[in-house]
Each structure stands twice: as structure tokens, then as C-alpha cells.
Design a protein that fits this description.
By secondary structure, the chain is an alpha+beta fold. The protein is 32% helix and 25% strand. The protein has a domain of 52 residues. Strands 1-2-3 form a three-stranded antiparallel beta sheet. A hairpin with a 2-residue loop joins strand 2 and strand 3.
């Protein structure tokens, strides 16, 4: 999740990258809203977002207030 100063955001979301793929997910509810990831990675990201929904919401609010977001634990093998 990062601040895009010139972009209009109508829906809270985060970006996920895997190799040459990039996707955008909403987190309330968790769903793919743009781009694509391979199926396995998409399911992993969706599961991670479900676990971290509260943290994602807090970080979105921080970004909208022009404040740096907090670190969220990454995916681990």
C-alpha cells in the first residue's frame, strides 16, 4: 500500500506484485479489482488480506491522512 498523490481513490485497496504480474485488491471485502496474479498467488494474497484486514484499514486511514502506514507482516513460506 502506498500513497499515489495524483490518483483518485474511490475504494480502499492495496497492490500486490508477483514476478511480472501486478494486481489491485480491495480489502472490505477482499477481492481482486484490477490486474491479475497466477491463481495460487492470488489465493495466498487473498488469505493474507483476510488475516490483516484490520491493519489494512488502519493503514488506509493513515495514508488518507497523509501519514506513513505501519508495517504489516509479509507473507511467509
Amino acid at each position: 500500500m502506498y500513497w499515489e498523490s495524483r490518483a483518485k481513490h474511490h475504494r480502499p485497496h492495496f497492490h500486490a506484485k508477483y514476478q511480472e504480474h501486478e494486481a489491485v485488491f480491495s480489502f472490505d471485502p477482499v477481492e481482486l479489482i484490477a490486474g491479475s496474479l497466477p491463481s495460487k498467488q492470488r489465493h495466498i494474497v487473498e488469505g493474507w488480506a483476510e488475516i490483516h484486514t484490520d491493519e489494512l484499514k488502519k493503514n488506509w486511514d493513515l495514508l488518507m491522512a497523509d501519514t506513513n502506514p505501519n508495517k504489516i507482516d509479509p507473507l511467509r513460506k
